[in-house]
Amino acid sequence: MDFAEEENVGDGLGPRMNLDSCGGCHIQPALGGTSPFVNPQVAFAGKDGGTDRVPSFIAANGPVREARFVKNPDGTADGGVHALFTITGRSGANGCTLAQPDFATQLANRNVIFRIPTPTFGAGLIEQIPDAAIAANQGSNVLQKQSLGSRAGRTSTSWAARSRA
């Protein structure tokens, strides 16, 4: 199954990535799920001779993370995923000198947001719920919800908003 298969440079891995398989990040409680209990990104940084450093926000006992920058250097909105690792130094990547993003500077500038892997199963069913039903549910039983400590929040019901959640 391609989703679980680990890739190497010869298979087409790179030039930038967060891990060498989709299933490595999406494995809990089963293949296609969310972040595993032990973060495989820590061991991956040096796999096959890789010379990448493990960013400070990645820990062996923490979640798999993907990093996004809030703004581009020119001040425009970014929001794109910035892969943690490169193929530099890995077997089959002879001569590659691609540098990792400068996460330390971006963190110091408060320009990084994180996301853990979302499951690839189950959430698709929300597409079957009409937007009006979601909005109506948010506005129902307000006093009961408040008594339990819940406050009214923002509802994003468009497909684009759901895909970014």
Largest sheet: 2 strands, antiparallel
| Order of helical and strand elements | EHHEEHEHHH
What percent of the residues sit in helical stretches (DSSP H or I)?
10-25%
Total strands: the figure is 4
Q: How are the strands of the largest sheet arranged?
A: 1-3
What amount of the residues lies in strands? 5-15%
Report the end-to-end length measured between terminal Cα atoms.
Answer: 27 Å
Tally the helices: what do you get? 6
Structural class: alpha+beta
Give Rg in angstroms. Answer: 19 Å
Structural shape: globular
Let me know the average pLDDT. 86
Low-confidence stretches: 156-165
For this structure, the quaternary state is single chain
Describe the structure.
The structure is a single chain. With 165 residues, this protein is of the alpha+beta class. The chain contains 6 helices and 4 strands; from the N terminus they run βααββαβααα. It has helices at 22-25, 41-44, 103-108, 131-139, 142-147, 159-164; strands at residues 16-17, 66-69, 85-86, 112-115. A two-stranded antiparallel ribbon has the order 1-3. It has a two-stranded antiparallel sheet with strand order 2-4. The longest helix has 9 residues, at 131-139. The two termini are 27 Å apart. The model is unreliable at 156-165 (pLDDT under 50).
